[in-house]
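I hope you will forgive my troubling you with a question about protein structure. You will find the record immediately after this paragraph.
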Amino acid sequence: MYKSKILLIDDEITLRETIHEILANENYEVVSLSSAQEALDLLDNWVPDLIICDIMMPVMDGFMFYEILKEVKPLSAVPFIFLTAKKEDNLMRKCLLLGADDFLIKPFIINELVKIVEVKINRFKKIKNTVGNLFVGEKKYLLHEVNTSLNGILGSINLLIDGGDDLEKDNIKEFHDIIKICGYHLNRTMFNLFLYQNVINNEVRYSEKDKSNIGDTFENVLNTIQIAYNDADERIFFRIKKATIKVSEEYLYFILYEIVENALKFSDSKSVSVIGKPFDDKYYRVVIKDSGIGFSQEELKKIDAGQQFNREKREQQGLGLGIFLTRAILKKLGGVFTIISTVNMGTEITLYFPI
């Protein structure tokens, strides 16, 4: 009979041995280690169904360990529970925004530990069975993207419920913000997947009657981006001349959001410019330019559905569908997509929309 596998990491030997014994008695296969580095060595050849890890450890703490695991494809979606001896709001917030499944505050009740472990493993199995076959290529991270957003939402809701009247007003707002950010991210993930299916099945719907105002749509895009990027106002320089173009509001919003958000994400704290105006009597041109990490010529040739370059180094989130879908949809609508990029100098993307 298959036993669910659990990796336990804690430098405190007494607690580690106690948790190991409890979980082993619950019929789990448990491997317990004293450091994150030992765990990384083990995980080269072994994939658990759940990881429980202390936050405060020497050399490599739990947060650093978790960040490394997020970039390893076979491990990126494995449920992860943090152990902490401190009940601090900033630690809880960091756990939730990172996408961890849960955290336990020491000392904890045995039944609480057993129940959380059972729930997380069972939920992971269900999610894996439901969406495990939805990866859109051999190196995709759909399961991780869905799981990360769900963890942030569910974790924040649980804290709001458990905290009740004891939570400060600022804490409540923080958890509301986390739910909002994670909700937008989850919605974007699923919508991108929906569009991807439409593109590969040649089901991109459009009509000659489709029209939208690019100035109004761009304002909506900025409002959404500002939810996740507090410095968006300072970093985005834009000049968009209002005009009506022959693209639906849905597709226009998607294209502008994907390209502008990508420019922000890959240019760190640097500014991004967005300039839009009629090009001629057939097209409206939008130029998005950043001074970020850029792409090599070889990478530009390989841009495809779900392609992400150096995800580990660039700390990417998302499915890697943005540029692929933008180019495919724009072509279908009678528009034009061009990209010029240089490594460590930046990228310039030009979009031509029919008018």
User: Anything to note?
Assistant: DSSP finds 13 helices and twelve strands in the chain. Residues 169-200 form the longest helix (32 residues). Residues 5-198 form a domain with the Rossmann fold fold (CATH 3.40.50.2300). The first strand starts at residue 5 and ends at 9.
